[in-house]
Design brief:
The structure holds 3 protein chains of 3 kinds. Chain A is globular. In chain A, helix 9 runs antiparallel to helix 12. Helices cover 73% and strands 0% of the residues of chain A. Chain A has a single domain, classed as MetI-like (MetI-like fold). Chain A is an all-alpha fold. Chain B is built from 11 helices and no strands. Chain B is globular. The model of chain B has no long low-confidence stretch (mean pLDDT 88). By secondary structure, chain C is an alpha+beta fold. Chain C is built from 8 helices and 20 strands. In chain C, the strands form 4 sheets. Chain C has a 6-stranded mixed β-sheet with strand order 6-7-8-3-9-10, with helices on both faces. A 5-stranded antiparallel β-sheet of chain C has the order 13-12-11-14-20. In chain C, a hairpin with a 2-residue loop joins strand 12 and strand 13. The chains are: A mainly alpha, B mainly alpha, C alpha+beta. Chains in contact: A-B, A-C, B-C. The interface between A and B is large, with 93 and 102 residues.
């Protein structure tokens, strides 16, 4: 059979991948199990058990944010998928537009809104109400996560829902299903792959963030990402301990992926880009 | 199913969500023109824009960001597109799936993990300056190029390559005259996505930049100080630029797409 | 050129994919200016044969000769053979003109000549006004014509067509069958055409090659193939047939359905088990009597020109075509004349009853 014969063009990439994707991850494992002199030790890993509460808190906030994203994005994606072609294009452009703005700037904007003398409190005092503490709460962190990552939930859901043909919904109601029955028995199962990729695409960056928690959470909302940051670049500089913490985070992510990979299809992999 | 009431309801819902998405951006734009530092309106002023453009640090980091993004996206496009072609022509299913899975790692792993792992590597190799930063950017850009080119290769009618040979192309000509034009849209999308990812990246740069200041890193050091109105001005400029680029490219593509669809319906 | 000159010869060609033998040592000669159709059900090896001639598949064994020279290892781009692919495989990034000009540009033909030859070809396929159209906005039939023009403009000695009309609707298909035949005669080159549609094969071809299970069952003119099928497979694939087991007692005497019949075939061994093939249109309906095979009409379907009936004779269903209406339940006799009884050696396809082929 004659076909494109160009295997060799992938070789530079394979070398690249080994050097700059696989090797660095192996280094993380190596550093996690050695001390500063390079000798084998389990101390870092044992020590990282201390951070379990931080990890649990990160998972809790990220899960909450993922849930909010799903609940908010699902009806939105459905409505969007039923619009005319040019309106759909317009909508997806509107969804992506904020994403094109620097992530830090968007988070900074929420800082400006939520601050003690920020936009909301200025408005509140202007109409004679007492100011509220909004910034530096876990609520602000979840809000920041939802805001930043909701497009990652909307887009995969939307792209899977455009594949649900109108006639399928009509067939369902023709066969006697009401709105909720159609939703539960037809739309939901068909959109499951979109839910899976949306959930992973929101949860993974949310659970590992240090920017959102750092900017909106104050000192009271210290997440696993903040911990890794200070271990690598901050005041508790310790590459070995930091690697162990990162390993802990990788394990969490891998478990999440494993749970959801059961639903994975080839489509959802490409929906990531 | 979409009765009038439902339609109105979904309209309201869409509007509210859009408000949520655009409120912060709106706030930044309004206060970039505020004459004082706080978040109460004191009068119109362009002062922060003037300050911004005399800020050496910002202008320099903008230059660095552009250098990194350009090098990274060009290299990533070459490496990623060739890799997609190579992997597509592999027969060994096992090797293919291993490469696909490894390519997924940078996409699914938390950015912070990719960042610190590369930081460890560069520390280990004792590298610093622009090179490691560009390498890091290439590493997370290649997968996006790879996965935007691969589906294009699969979509090609499998007889297309044979047709080129049949009409007299040798394999190299067939690739450049038929396969490459077919996958070009994927390559361009991949390149643009790589460019955007690189321009926008903060987390991985933060851990691998060493002493190189990129725009994201400079912004991060500024936002840590909370109120700094030049940032509002910078955000506004960036938003307007992006908006213009998107409007121009998207309106054109929507127009041709709709025209194509209409024509298809007539046939 | 000599009409009887062999242009392509396949000698003992075999091919396996993943351990499954697709072609089992086939031999085939194709002559200059001939319209040859490879006909058979899907998986019979007809497309593989075509792809071997085109150079897209290398045979495991055997020789492929082009004008007497072995070309097994010649790559497709060096063969004087062009292909019209099943799904056309037009280049979507090029317009109609550039698709047709593709092959000419590769051999650095002068621009003037390119324009002349492309226009000539587009005129041949009735697409003169479509030069600058995008190919993905053409209808199926128009794309088909572009594919034909793109292949023919290179002046191949042989044009290979892989089920080119498969994606078109019935009316368009009929038109294109007629046009293809016309184009072939105008160009005066060899066409090798692959199809599973027996009607297409019979309409267009000079020679039909019936294939099944990686073997060539019969090669002949459409008339030969239809009137003198060589075995039960050919008989069942081409047109409709009643195929019943029988015993050849001696030359011109066969026993089936519990009776002896006079026939015109001979040359079988004494009491050899055979397949007896009778075309439904050759069966005459007569009044039931001891003289004939008798049975009860179990169904009648109006088919436009004739009625198709099923007649149950002691457990065997006979298909009969007749222009006269006979109600269901009638007891009728089936008259078979000796010339209408075709006797065949038992073959692999014996078990296949009323295969029917691909009815359009």
């Amino acid at each position: 059979m004659i076909r494109l014969n160009a295997k060799w063009t992938s070789y530079p990439y394979i070398v690249w991948m080994l050097l700059f994707t696989i090797l660095p991850l192996l280094l993380v494992v190596y550093f996690a199990f050695t001390d500063s002199s390079g000798a084998f030790t389990l101390d870092n890993v044992k020590q990282s058990a201390l951070y379990i509460p931080t990890l649990v808190n990160s998972i809790y906030l990220a899960a909450l944010a993922t849930l909010f994203c799903l609940v908010l994005a699902y009806p939105f994606a459905f409505i969007m998928s039923r619009l005319s072609f040019s309106r759909q294009k317009m909508m997806s452009m509107l969804i992506m537009l904020p994403m094109w703005m620097n992530f830090l700037l968007r988070t900074y904007a929420w800082q400006a809104i939520l601050e003690d003398n920020g936009v909301i409190n200025t408005l509140l005092t202007a109409i004679g109400l007492p100011p509220a503490t909004l910034i530096n709460t876990s609520g602000a962190v979840v809000l920041g996560m939802v805001y930043n990552y909701i497009p990652f939930m909307i887009l995969p859901l939307y792209s899977i829902m455009t594949k649900i043909d109108k006639s399928i919904l009509e067939a369902s109601s023709d066969l006697g299903a009401g709105f909720f029955a159609t939703f539960r028995r037809v739309v939901l199962p068909l959109s499951l792959p979109g839910i899976v990729s949306g959930v992973t695409m929101v949860f993974v960056p949310a659970v590992s963030t240090f920017v959102i928690s750092g900017m909106l959470g104050g000192s009271g909302n210290y997440l696993i990402g903040d911990l890794i940051e200070v271990q690598f670049l901050g005041n508790s500089y310790d590459l070995n301990a930091g690697s162990a913490t990162s390993l802990l985070l990788m394990v969490v992510v891998l478990i999440t992926m494993a749970i959801f990979s059961r639903f994975e299809t080839e489509d959802s992999e490409e929906a990531l880009v | 199913m979409m009765q009038k009431k439902n339609k109105a309801l979904s309209g309201v819902y869409v509007a509210l969500l859009m408000l949520f998405l655009y409120l912060p951006i709106f706030v930044l734009i309004v206060f970039s023109f505020n004459s004082s530092k706080g978040y109460s309106w004191t009068g119109f002023s362009l002062k922060w824009y003037v300050d911004l453009f005399s800020n050496e640090l910002i202008l320099n980091s903008l230059k660095n960001t552009l250098i990194v993004a350009l090098f990274a996206s060009v290299f990533a496009t070459v490496i990623g597109a060739s890799a997609a072609v190579g992997v597509f022509s592999m027969q060994n299913k096992y090797a293919k799936s291993v490469i696909r899975s490894v390519t997924n790692i940078p996409l699914v792993m938390p950015e912070i993990v990719m960042g610190i792992s590369l930081m460890l590597l560069f520390a280990f190799l004792n590298m610093s300056g622009f090179v490691p930063l560009i390498i890091a950017h290439i590493s997370f850009c290649v997968p996006t190029v790879f996965f935007s080119v691969l589906p294009k290769l699969r979509q090609i009618n499998k007889n297309m390559y044979e047709a080129a040979l049949d009409l007299g192309c040798n394999p190299v000509q067939a690739f450049f005259k038929v396969v490459l034009p077919e996958i070009m849209p994927g390559i361009i999308t991949g390149f643009l996505m790589a460019l955007t990812y690189s321009l926008d990246d903060f987390v991985i740069s933060y851990f691998t930049a060493g002493n190189v200041q990129t725009l994201s890193i400079t912004i991060y050091s500024m936002v840590k100080k909370r109120v700094s109105p030049e940032i509002n001005a910078l955000s506004t400029i960036m938003f307007v630029v992006v908006l213009l680029v998107l409007l121009v490219t998207n309106i054109r593509s929507i127009k041709t797409e709709t025209a194509k669809q209409k024509k298809m319906m007539h046939i | 050129m000599d009409q009887n000159k062999k242009i392509i010869e396949l000698k003992g060609i075999s091919k396996s994919f993943d351990g499954e033998q697709i072609l089992k040592s086939i031999d085939l000669d194709i002559h200059d200016k001939e319209f040859v159709t490879l006909l058979g059900p899907s998986g019979c090896g007809k497309t593989t044969t075509l792809r071997i001639i085109g150079g897209f598949v290398t045979p495991d064994a055997g020789d492929l000769l082009f004008l007497g020279k072995r070309i097994n290892d010649v790559p497709p781009y060096k063969r004087k053979v062009n292909t019209v692919f099943q799904k056309y495989a037009l280049f979507p990034h090029l317009d109609v003109f550039e698709n047709v000009a593709f092959g000419l540009r590769l051999v650095k033909t002068p621009e003037k000549e390119i324009v002349r030859r492309v226009r000539e070809m587009l005129a041949l396929v009735n697409l003169s006004d479509f030069e600058s159209r995008r190919v993905d906005l053409l209808s199926g039939g128009q794309q088909q014509r572009v594919a034909i023009a793109r292949a023919l403009v290179n002046q191949p000695k042989v044009l290979l067509l892989d089920e080119p009309l498969g994606a078109l609707d019935l009316k368009l298909r009929k038109e294109m069958q007629y046009e293809l035949k016309k184009i072939q005669q105008r160009m005066g080159i060899t066409f090798i055409y692959v199809t599973h549609d027996q009607e297409e094969a019979l309409t267009m071809s000079d020679t039909v090659v019936v294939m099944n299970g990686g073997l060539i069952h019969q090669i002949g003119t459409p008339q030969d193939i239809y009137n003198e099928p060589i075995n039960a497979f050919t008989a069942s694939f081409i047109g409709e047939s009643n195929i019943v087991p029988g015993i050849m007692h001696r030359d011109c005497l066969v026993e089936f359905a519990g009776r002896d019949f006079v026939c015109v075939d001979g040359g079988f061994e004494k009491d050899e088990p055979v397949d007896v093939v009778v075309r439904p249109e050759d069966v005459d309906i007569v009044a039931a009597s001891d003289e004939y095979l008798c049975g009860k009409v179990t169904s009648v379907t109006f088919k436009g020109v004739h009625y198709e009936m099923r007649v149950d004779c002691g457990g065997t269903t006979w298909r009969v075509h007749s222009t006269d209406f006979t109600p269901i339940g009638s007891l009728v006799g089936l008259r078979l004349t000796p010339e209408d009884i075709h006797i065949m050696h038992k073959s692999d396809a014996s078990g296949v009853k009323n295969y029917g082929g691909a009815q359009p």
